[in-house]
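ok trying again, last paste got cut off:
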Amino acid sequence: MELEARKIEAEERREARRLEAEERNEARRLDLEVRKLEVEKHRDFEWERSRLGANSTHKGGEGEESTVERQMVRSLQLIPDFDEQKVAEWFRRFEKKAAEFGWQGERWVGLVANKLKGRALEAYDNMSAEDLESYEDFKADILRAYELRPEAYRQKFRGGKKRPGDSYLECARHLEQVFKRWIRSEEVDSQRALEELMVMEQFINAADKELVPLLREKRFKTLKEAAT
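nice, full thing came through this time. structure:
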């Protein structure tokens, strides 16, 4: 009886820890979603403001911008247009401007997001709320969008590690997100295509070291093409 009671007590403790972990993860997920919604709100605000006329003057007290919105507008006006030809240089100019004017780091993602276009905007639209939590991670994902994207996502997935502060569940979700991006970028749309991709990767890894860069650059569609 005593042994059985101990088993029950241990099981209850495990269940309590599991529930606590789920509650923490859910709270964190909701917080991240709120942050992404805030970024989206700032994007929508700027687009709507541009549509209505950025320089128009509001009449009376109606439609007055909040202090945060006024600060956002002033900040956005100081940021140069996003340059798809010189993405890394653009980020350096932005960061220099942000430091010069003392913009708070937690607002950098929102400020940059309002300026994105083209491939960078596409990458942003595919990001999760978690991706927007860190400016450095956000910037890295934008920069990767202008590299050979499938290879960049493959490397990010294969090199994935548990980040400080993450639970194992959060680590698993992050790896799953990166894997899905890799698969989408490779345009994998069937079980057969996924098998081909997995075997192709192992084939390239097994090739002579001097051939690996060439095989990755060629981006063969089938294993047969790569082998012949």
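cool. The CA atoms of residues 73 and 221 lie 47 Å apart. The radius of gyration is 23 Å.
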